[in-house]
C-alpha cells in the first residue's frame, strides 16, 4: 500500500483531478480507510515526505525483496 497523510492526500487529489475540497473529501471518504488497507498490506510506503524519502523506501524494499528472492528455494 502506498499512502500519505490525509491532509496531503486531499491536496494531491484536488490538484491532480482539479476537484474542490468537498469533492475530493467525498471521493476519499468513499474508499476503504488507509488504516484498514494497511492491515492487508504485505508492504507499505509512506509518500508523505516527498520524492527523496519515497525513493529511499522503494530502494530499501527492492533490496529486501531481492534478498528474499535469493533466500527462497526455487521450484523446478
Helix amount: 55-70%
Low-confidence stretches: none
The shape is elongated
Order of helices and strands: EHHHEH
Count of helix runs: 4
Percent range for β-strand residues: 5-15%
Radius of gyration, rounded?
A: 16 Å
Major sheet strand order: 1-2
Taking the sheet with the most strands, its summary is: 2 strands, parallel
First-residue to last-residue Cα separation: 31 Å
Calculate the mean pLDDT score and round it: 96
- DSSP E strands, number: 2
Structural class: mainly alpha
Please explain how this structure is put together:
The chain is mainly alpha-helical. 64% of the residues lie in helices and 5% in strands. Strands 1-2 form a two-stranded parallel sheet. Helix 1 crosses helix 2. The radius of gyration is 16 Å and the shape is elongated. The model has no long low-confidence stretch (mean pLDDT 96).
Helix-strand layout with pairing:
Elements: E1 2-3, H1 6-17, H2 21-29, H3 34-40, E2 45-46, H4 51-71
Parallel strand pairs: 1-2
Overview features:
76 residues; single chain; two-stranded parallel sheet; 5% strand; mainly alpha; elongated
In short:
The chain has helices at 6-17, 21-29, 34-40, 51-71; strands at 2-3, 45-46.
Amino acid at each position: 500500500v502506498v499512502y500519505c497523510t490525509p491532509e496531503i492526500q486531499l491536496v494531491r487529489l484536488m490538484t491532480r483531478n482539479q476537484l474542490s475540497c468537498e469533492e475530493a473529501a467525498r471521493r476519499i471518504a468513499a474508499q476503504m480507510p488507509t488504516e484498514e488497507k494497511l492491515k492487508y498490506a504485505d508492504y507499505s510506503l509512506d509518500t508523505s515526505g516527498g520524492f527523496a524519502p519515497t525513493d529511499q523506501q522503494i530502494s530499501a524494499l527492492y533490496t529486501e525483496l531481492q534478498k528474499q528472492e535469493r533466500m527462497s528455494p526455487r521450484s523446478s
